[in-house]
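Folds abound. Consider this:
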Amino acid sequence: MPRSLKKGPFIDDHLRVKVEALNTRNEKKVLKTWSRRSTILPDMIGHTIAVHNGKKFIPVYITEQMIGHKLGEFAPTRTFKGHAVKAALERAAAAAAPAAAPAGGSSAPGAKS
């Protein structure tokens, strides 16, 4: 559920101060932050913010379409490595394939070797 309009968007003060300082100096530096809960504001457009995902910092370039979203939405915390069932079926199919090959030396008549 969104935050009330009366309160306004939430952004950590330390991050807001850093972004405002970059804007006043016209600098484009990568800002590191652990504040995944902060809302992206229009002041942040054009900056790159490195958001911590629990293991490393993921650089996020802020565009106009991101305004109103949280920083944490753009730095995934989990890596998907595939479904275990599908991998097991592929391994079983690969193991069964060599066993299904003909044991004789020649294949079809007229085939070149």
